[in-house]
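Many introductory courses stop at the sequence. We go one step further.
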Amino acid sequence: MIELQEVSKRFGAVTAIDEVSLTIGRGELVVILGSSGSGKSTLLRMMNRLVEHDSGRILFAGEEIRSFRPEDLRRRMGYAIQSIGLFPHWSVERNIATVPSLLRWPKTRVDARVAELMTLLQLEPAVYRARYPHQLSGGQQQRVGVARALAADPEVLLMDEPFGALDPVTRAALQRELAHIHDVSGKTIVLVTHDIDEALGLATRIVLLDAGRIVQSGTPLEMLAQPASDFVTDFFGRADVGIRLLGLRRVSEYMRPVGEHPLHDDDEGPISDTLSLRDALSVFVSRRVDRLPVANGEGTIVGRLELRDLLRPPRPSEPGIAQ
């Protein structure tokens, strides 16, 4: 889908990107992670020619990106940023319809697409489509920005710190919605962030940059459990690795089947089998118990999780670290 071959970019005497090679496959959700000044945003912006690379090659769908007119390339790559950039005197509906209207879609198709995306992003069309940006909360404005980036059904969605200015609750909600969009659409998404937990929670693959170079690329579990260097370990937090690993595993992978381990009369309400072990640990602590019943999506009790289960290594059959 997108391939960078020994790509470099300099700004005066500063090398922002230093001979980076990277392939992003169709349907991936790749998170580019790194500290401030590591080159994350520059790398992203080179993909749609908002920043021109100095050397190397960047291919999109097998073609060198300089063979595309910039406006044609950007219509095939949706782009969402932290500052949103909504047109203040246009309604929500007109903001979302910007690119489809430029492409001269029929009005009925534009209207249907706007309604579809607003519904997907939990913006009730009857309530919000006629409102203006100043009438929306920060989270609602960001939803409109994401909807606008998706409106023309681009092949790739590029996102540069899209949720960075939001409060933690709104940010978590939008992260869940982005994961849902990726699941239902299979869209290729490239997201830049400096937030480690955001990267671990969203990515199918993380690309960690330092000083314009890739220091490691891998799944969230590989980055935590198989760091390529001390820099990677320190970046993710040497003291936090254990708790972050718990955040990548689900209760369903560790619970004891209910038939083999009967429940007790004094057991409290069940936790969901989709909960992360990190969240389950919080429940253990808040309830001051050492066992929890587990229910599936239909509310049926399917097993039990014990506090000591969080300490055992993953079985070879479980997803995660190769044994």
